[in-house]
Amino acid sequence: MAIFDLHHPWLFVFGVLGNIISVFVFLAPVPAFRRICKEKSTMGFQSLPYVVALFSSMLWMYYAFIKKNAILLVSINSFGCIVESIYISIFILYASKQARRQTVKLLVGLIGVLYTLIFLVTLFPLNGALRVQVVGWICVTVAVLVFAAPLSIVFQVVRTKSVEFMPFTLSFFLTLSAIMWFGYGLLLKDMCIALPNVLGFFLGMIQMLLYAMYRNVKPTSDLEKKVPEHVITMVTVGNSEQIHPVKSEDMINKLDDVAADQPSDEENNVSPPALVANDHDGGVLAKVNVPQPLETPVLVVCAA
């Protein structure tokens, strides 16, 4: 095939590098799904990014097959379809009934209906170069929408001045992936592959720039700002039924003292326990469960 033609060595190089980098991008959510398996719960995660990623990979595979000279595009998106299918299967296995129904509806809507419709409409009425062109621009449209999705995270970073939900490593690999697939599409003289990755490159650069700007900024979280508003100001003394108000500041100080005495979570490798503050007479001031921060899964789609 043309992809292995020795007269196109750089095409092969960009395609192979694009495959390698995209593999790391596809595998980025693995830690989140390992935690889902460990906790046997989806913990509020959503399946939409992974269903969209599967839909996108299937479209690019279809495009690569009818184009007939983009085997490296077939290989990475085949890998993407397998990985995203595993993610979705794990999600369905541990999701609540409502989340499971929503995921099934998404699969039926995007894969069962929309993908099948695109396949049938372009396969039979169209042929040759026209079919390739139509499918290619459908892929471009989907890719632009997929690349535009992380803009919400960019706005969140600017608003909160926190890069907690925008890891630098992922942004870096997404940018590299966009560069490789842009070069691959350019050398292949295929604008349907090259154009979406221009947007992907600029979005990746914006993310890395924001990370450099806010990586050392530690703003007060919304939870910390709202603590005084949610402090319990009633206390039960001993075992009596009398209830007395206490000062919020005193209770917060007691909770801080108790928290300082708690063993490190990393040393014990256990979930943080509930903190209990007592008054001098043995009465319980408050019991606070300390939540663990959730890892937010990211939208992972082949840059091609």
TrEMBL record:
InterPro entries associated with the record: SWEET (IPR047664), SWEET_rpt (IPR004316)
Molecular function GO terms recorded: sugar transmembrane transporter activity
Broad class of the protein's primary localization: membrane
Subcellular location: Cell membrane
Membrane topology reported for the UniProt record: Multi-pass membrane protein
Keyword Transmembrane attached: yes
Superkingdom per UniProt: Eukaryota
Leader sequence residues: none
Swiss-Prot/TrEMBL keywords: Cell membrane, Membrane, Repeat, Sugar transport, Transmembrane, Transmembrane helix, Transport
Annotated TM spans: 12-33, 45-65, 71-94, 106-128, 134-158, 165-187, 193-214
A Pfam short name: MtN3_slv
CC per GO annotation: plasma membrane
Family from the record: Belongs to the SWEET sugar transporter family.
PANTHER family: BIDIRECTIONAL SUGAR TRANSPORTER SWEET15, RAG1-ACTIVATING PROTEIN 1
Its biological purpose: Mediates both low-affinity uptake and efflux of sugar across the membrane.
Name of this chain's protein: Bidirectional sugar transporter SWEET
